Amino acid sequence: MKWKPGFIVICLILVLSMIAALFGLGLSYHGSFGPRDSLGELSMIGGDAWVQDGASIRFYSLAPKGNHLRLHMRGWRPIGQPEAKYEISVCGQIVAAFEDNGKTVQNVPLLGQCEPRLVSFKVLNPIAPSPNDRRRLGSQLKSLKLTSKLGVPILQPRTIIVVGAAIAVLSLLGMFLLWTSGQIYLSLLIPVVSFLFLMNAKFMEYHKLFPLWLLCVGMAIGVLIVPILDAKIAKKDQGIKNSHFRQADGGSFSLLLLIVVAAAAFRFYHLDFGLPENYHPDEVPKVNAIMRMVQSGTLNPNYFLHPSLLLYSTYFTNTVLHYFGISGEFRDTAFLAGRVVSCLAGIFSVVLLYYIAKNLYSSGTGLLAAALLAFSPIHV
Questions:
Q1: What residues form the membrane-spanning segments (predicted)?
Q2: How far apart are the first and last CA of the chain?
Q3: Which of 42, 132, 157, 196 has the fewest CB atoms within 10 Å, measured from its CB?
Q4: Domains of the chain by start residue, with CATH
Q5: What is the pLDDT of residue 248?
Q6: Distance (Å, rounded) from C-alpha 109 to C-alpha 106?
């Protein structure tokens, strides 16, 4: 395989990865919604769709420029009342002013650096529905859509770069796996598949894909490293019989790979069960210990009932999840991070048991032991 095709594929991977991140994250964002499905982003805009004076909309993790909000108002008011007049502010700066006649769609540019991006409504001529209703109303909101010239919301550049880099790493590993077969162009499918995963991660919950990404990267690295390790071991082997045995052991590795994939699927499935409630009694004291480290700024958890490696691993994993954009307080997400660490440790123990049993007995015994542990309900 010459390097020129490889260089072309690398360039295509980098470009496609960033495109997949840009559009995949944009499509995962809740870009079009109304008063009844606002997911808490709307304030002082009730289920009856009436916009009150001082109403606001919050948007998270948006790029400083490029996005705009399309507002479609109904324009209806009681007979004898003039059309509602609005001033729209973004991050405290007035960006639009209009009268609602119900026929036009207002495009509000979402400029600014504030986080979340706060869009505020000021009704210049509010009306009161009744003497008993103290709301100061403008008119009714029909629909609103967050979009850009690209057709999807544009997220913060840092988020796009991080996710794009993660896709590129996975794609490059796939390319090197396919290098000897001469089918490196198949690695270009990885950004496409990643885009499909991202666009279906509703409401920016793409951080839940991080464990899957970590699993795929680990498996790819393992597949790349194992032949190198086997080659070094084979060189050290002096016995001809032992050398032939190792050459015939390729099928065992394939079966082990299937067992590991199944073990990972069982452990990562529905990883957030019960959250945000805390149903497992062992999780709370460990999370409390992690929060003591966070609050004190030290690595002393003041909790030594169990070994501290789990606490440090959970602390590190939770920090990584927040870096990748996970939403929620650090304490709340620590429960999920701890489960990720436990899952990875469980998968590693399946592989470790295989090699222990293989060295003590045979490859078949190792596969049987790994399979039993992989599907053991208590271990899962």
A1: 7-29, 159-178, 185-204, 210-229, 250-269, 303-324, 336-355
A2: 42
A3: 132
A4: 3-22+156-248 (no CATH), 32-148 (2.60.120)
A5: 44
A6: 10
